[in-house]
Specification:
The chain is mainly α. About 75% of the residues lie in helices and about 0% in strands.
């Protein structure tokens, strides 16, 4: 359900939306905003983070009671809080396209695992899910940290820490809101015959969505690391993503080899 809907949405969205970064408007708003601005931005960032939401959807897909949901979500939350706070505070970072590419692999992993991929293709039990969710939580938190480090956090260590914690609080609020909807919809769907028929398809869509996100992030990394490596300038290439109208992006003056 959610995975199928998000997959269709991903295909129709422009690349700059899928980049899932911090906009210039956000940066400017944070310059004059207080801590509540960081809370709101954290919540918004989580609610628009397709990679985070898809992974969480995969984690709770087959969980049928509140205790299990709370256990796995707590482990995931602990993981991403650790890297979000510490990586941001100590300014540990990496190329965010590559981090998001690995996060996309976590989405693929969860859909593959939910469909019994380890048993079918490797004749082995699935790796410990709690450990996997915690590890991926650390990774997701590092991805969030790379975005937060694009914002003006200030030089004062105390104020910077409060801004980081405010953003983290917003992320948790957004995560709780998203999970409440996911868990409620899944609980209703499980009582219908279609759940058994389409659960495999939903998790296969999760894998496809992860692959699509992976390819898009690798493409973004190619732009970021070698913006002049394309046949035509990066400015024109961006326009191609926006409207895909070849007439607006072609330059006849470069058709010859001279």
């Amino acid at each position: 359900m959610l995975a199928l809907a998000v997959l269709a949405l991903l295909i129709g969205l422009p690349f700059d939306v899928l980049a899932h970064g911090i906009s210039e408007a956000d940066r400017q708003r944070m310059l004059s905003g207080g801590y509540l601005q960081y809370v709101g931005l954290g919540a918004t960032h989580m609610l628009t983070g397709y990679d985070h939401l898809l992974f969480l959807f995969g984690v709770v897909f087959f969980l049928t009671n509140f205790k299990d949901v709370a256990k796995f979500v707590t482990v995931f939350t602990l993981g991403h809080c650790i890297t979000l706070v510490f990586a941001t505070y100590f300014k540990i970072t990496w190329n965010y396209y590559l981090i998001d590419a690995i996060i996309a692999i976590s989405v693929i992993y969860k859909g593959f695992d939910n469909n019994g991929g380890f048993q079918k293709y490797f004749d082995m039990k699935s790796p410990n899910l709690l450990v996997a969710v915690f590890g991926f939580g650390l990774l997701h938190g590092f991805g969030l940290s790379t975005r937060l480090q694009q914002l003006p956090l200030g030089d004062d260590s105390t104020s910077m820490l409060i801004r980081i914690l405010s953003f983290n609080l917003g992320v948790e609020i957004g995560q709780i809101a998203a999970l409440a909807v996911m868990v409620a919809l899944l609980a209703l769907w499980r009582h219908r015959p279609s759940f058994r028929r389409f659960s495999f398809a939903a998790n296969l869509a999760l894998v496809y969505a992860g692959v699509l996100l992976l390819l898009m992030q690798l493409h973004g990394y190619q732009h970021d690391s070698d913006p002049n490596g394309f046949r035509f300038p990066d400015q024109e290439h961006n326009h191609a993503h926006e409207d895909m109208e070849i007439g607006k992006t072609a330059d006849p003056g470069r058709d010859s080899l001279d």
